[in-house]
Amino acid sequence: MSSPAELPILIAGGGPVGVITALALARQGLRVHLFEAESKVNDAPRAATTHAATLEMLDELGLVDEVIRRGLVEPLFRTWDRSTGELVAEFDFGRLKDDTRYPFAVQCEQHKLANLAIEKLRALPHANLEFSARVVAVAQSNDSVEIKVDTAAGTRAIKGSYLIGADGGRSTVRKSLGIEFEGYTHPERFLILTTPFDIGTRYPGCTRNYLSHPQDWCAFFKVSGDDGKGLWRVLSSTRLEQSEAELFEADAVERRLQNFIAKEGKYDVVHRNLYNVHQRVAASFRKGRVFLAGDAAHVNNPIGGLGLNFGIHDAVELSGLLGRVIRREAPSEVLDLYDRHRRPLNIEFVQQQTVANKRRMEEKDPAARARNFAELAAIAADPAAHRAYLLRASLLESVRKRAAA
């Protein structure tokens, strides 16, 4: 029988957080076995913004050059008052040139990042990846973890030294552990429409734009697309009474886009996505030999592009702690630091920021809107405040705070 030290570390979920966790572990010479329920990486449009703090981590994993090559580098983001068409504030990550090697964000779709990590992982002999393999049950003892995995060949039991649940917001691993997913779900849903129409002709010089409005806020982001020619994503909220069929109906989609940016001729829409929006954090990121990372541990609204970035930070920190323990460089108690640090950091740097971002985008009270705009403009105009705002928005401040703990 294998000893706990010889058993692989098991990972549920083959999205970017799961595969980057596997890569960070395998690069230390540790055995990993990753299971993904789907037959391939999900390539539907999802998160795309990669911030400076994350780019630094991807550099250590040998991924950053390819992420930059396959994405779009953007040092700016802008907030607009959609009611008047006026620019409220422009923020420039270039002001962080003395703080980071990467004073910009990169718009690289998450499926590209996941596939890049998988390419690296497949080259490592002690890493095993299984697609079409769904983790359906979890059990653990003092010295090992056992999961049940459903595949086309049937269900089998697999034993490991530890288990990392990176299996998304509906995480089977989290539910198996009985860990509460604390927080709330916003009543309205968000709609993303993707078009090859060059919205940049209307908002030149910046590919990340937030347009605040009391009823119809929206945001425009450019990604490179699979062919590198570029696609624009239009993010907006919906009304409670609107059904998916109504929102996806061709004329309704056309009216929505024309309302945001009027143009001659119809829009070519290559993708539609409607989803619920949550602000939730697991009551604990660890239970015994099982850990939660990424969306399995925390979910948030996408305004600011923080969720995936923080999940990657989970992956890097957890893999480092596990490596120390398995190599006997630290006692197993050091693993307590994962929950002790990651959960409060998520609440402070992700939950609080994304909730504030959403409120600012949709603020209905005219006086409050005016105050919000004045505050953003003042921050952008003051060099010290501008830098401090960007350190927080890029998650560099959260990484520094963790390092100082």
Description:
The protein has 405 residues and is α+β, with helices and mostly antiparallel strands. It has a single domain, classed as FAD/NAD(P)-binding domain, CATH 3.50.50.60. The chain has twelve helices and 22 strands. The strands form five sheets. The protein has a seven-stranded mixed sheet with strand order 6-5-15-16-17-14-18, sandwiched between helices. A six-stranded mixed sheet has the order 8-2-1-12-21-20. Strand 10 (145-151) and strand 11 (154-160) form a beta hairpin.
Keywords:
single chain; alpha+beta; FAD/NAD(P)-binding domain; 12 helices; 22 strands; 26% strand; globular
Please specify the SSE layout and strand pairing.
Elements: E1 9-12, H1 16-26, E2 32-35, E3 49-50, H2 52-60, H3 64-70, E4 72-74, E5 76-81, E6 86-92, E7 105-107, H4 110-122, E8 127-130, E9 134-140, E10 145-151, E11 154-160, E12 162-165, H5 172-177, E13 181-185, E14 190-195, E15 208-212, E16 218-223, E17 231-237, H6 244-248, H7 250-260, E18 271-275, E19 278-282, E20 286-287, E21 290-292, E22 298-299, H8 307-326, H9 336-362, H10 366-381, H11 383-393, H12 396-404
Parallel strand pairs: 1-2, 1-12, 2-8, 5-15, 12-21
Antiparallel strand pairs: 3-7, 4-7, 5-6, 9-10, 10-11, 13-19, 14-17, 14-18, 15-16, 16-17, 19-22, 20-21
Helix pairs in contact: 1-4, 1-8, 8-9, 10-11
